[in-house]
What we know:
Elements: E1 3-11, H1 15-20, H2 22-34, E2 38-43, E3 49-55, H3 59-68, H4 70-73, E4 77-85
Amino acid sequence: MATLYVILLKYVRPPEEVTAHLEEHRAYLRQAYADGWFIVSGPRIPATGGVILARAASEDDVRAMIHADPFSQLGIAEYEIIAFDALWHAPEFAPLLRPDATVEG
């Protein structure tokens, strides 16, 4: 099983700064999906930050992913990383948990 990570983003800058850099953040997300790191993501409700479900070989790899996010580089968000083992899952989720599906850093 792959190690999964919940990444919680909390905005620490005013909403207008978040909006001003949203397209840069979305470009980062598109690349992370293309690289096979992220499984699902979206804004928190209410819009105080975001949530990302990622897979990685290590927490150091997750920290490197976060460092690449413009929201991190510009000090727009703080990040909390929660690692967990996906012991239970819907059958459709199984392909995302294969060890060969994990991207090495």
